[in-house]
# Entry
Amino acid sequence: MDVMATKLKQIKIETTSEQVTSILRNAILRNQYKDGEALNLNEVAAELGVSNTPVRAAFQALANDGLIQLRPNKGAVVNGITPKRIRDYYQVRQILESHAAVYACDAEDMTALEEAFEDAEACIRDENWANYKNCNHAFHQVIWDMCGNDKMTELMSSLWISSSRSVNASEPEYVRCAHEEHKRIFEAILKRDKQLVYQEMQSHLVRSMNDVLTNLEK
# Structure
């Protein structure tokens, strides 16, 4: 047996339509597109340098998420981000991610989680506040992967709301707060304390939701 094959995790390559969906979703979530603003399929395709086909698929995915409404003649209208939509997203994330963290406690190999946490620790030591949002996403991604349920991982990825929507996503106070919460989640998983990790993940996501809602009101 090839030893390396047992140690390396296969890389997931996103399709063009998935990349377009992610770009548009984050643009909408960051209020780069306003409520009621029109999106033209041809214009979006030209701006991103892709054909109409992946943009059409992305429009359909975003419509399924409720972020846009499809219109005739290759168009769509942005629904915009409301407090209710944010709460809806986070309520589903709380259900999925809290259970994913519980399932992660059963993982045999904790190496990826330890590495993700150590990378975040390095950001704190180096005061690299701007890069912490990448470490934040990586930490959550590892937990999703560790849960062992591909469908849950897919759903959680689609529900991820960029940390840039949080009030002070790159400021020291926010970073330290998020990291302390991650530390408690990390330690609970290492201890395989399922009740504690469930509570810590719930608390973390509620705080994150409140930050996003506060930022939305500005």
